[in-house]
Design goal:
It is built from two helices and seven strands; from the N terminus they run H-H-E-E-E-E-E-E-E. The chain is mainly beta. The chain has a four-stranded antiparallel sheet, with no helix packed on it. The protein is elongated, with a radius of gyration of 26 Å.
Length: about 150
C-alpha cells in the first residue's frame, strides 16, 4: 500500500486541522463497508439530502448525531428474544455507524423515516460576514471623483 506524507503541506497552513483529519481518514481507510447503502442528493443550490436504506430497523434503534462538523448516523438492533427459525436470513440487521464530514456552512435539518429509508435534510447557510459585499472606494480629495465636461 502506498503512503503519502502530508507534513510539508501542513507546515505551511494554519487552521486546517479538519482537512488533515479528512485526508488522513480517506487515505487510510481499508475499503470501508458498503453497509448500509445510502444516497446523497443535491436538491437545489443550497439543499441536500442523505437517504440511507435501513431495512429491518425501527426509528427507536437509529441515532443521528452532529459533533464537531461530522454527521454520524448509527443503528443498533435491539435483541430479538423471539424463537424464530430462519431458513434464509438475507436482511442484514447488524449494527452500523456511518460518518459524513460536513462543511462549516452546512446545517443539519429535519430527519424522517419511512418505508425503511432514513432521510436527513441538510442546508447550506452562509453567514452574512462570509457573503460577498461591495466595498466603497473613498478618496482623500473629493474633487477627484468630480468629473467636469467642457465643450471643446
Amino acid at each position: 500500500m502506498r503512503t503519502f506524507d502530508l507534513s510539508p503541506l501542513m507546515r505551511s497552513t494554519v487552521g486546517f486541522d479538519h482537512l488533515n483529519r479528512l485526508l488522513d481518514s480517506a487515505l487510510t481507510s481499508d475499503g470501508a463497508s458498503a453497509y448500509p447503502p445510502y444516497n446523497i442528493e443535491k436538491l437545489s443550490e443550497d439543499d441536500y439530502r442523505v437517504t440511507m436504506a435501513v431495512a429491518g430497523f425501527s426509528p427507536e434503534e437509529l441515532t443521528i448525531t452532529v459533533q464537531e462538523g461530522t454527521l454520524i448516523l448509527a443503528g443498533k438492533a435491539q435483541d430479538d428474544n423471539s424463537e424464530r427459525e430462519f431458513l434464509h436470513r438475507g436482511i442484514a440487521k447488524r449494527a452500523f455507524e456511518r460518518r459524513f464530514e460536513l462543511a462549516d456552512t452546512i446545517q443539519v435539518g429535519d430527519a424522517s423515516f419511512e418505508n425503511g429509508l432514513l432521510q436527513v435534510e441538510l442546508r447550506r447557510v452562509i453567514p452574512e460576514h462570509k457573503k460577498p459585499r461591495n466595498i466603497e472606494i473613498r478618496s482623500g480629495d473629493a474633487r477627484i471623483k468630480t468629473i467636469e465636461s467642457n465643450a471643446a
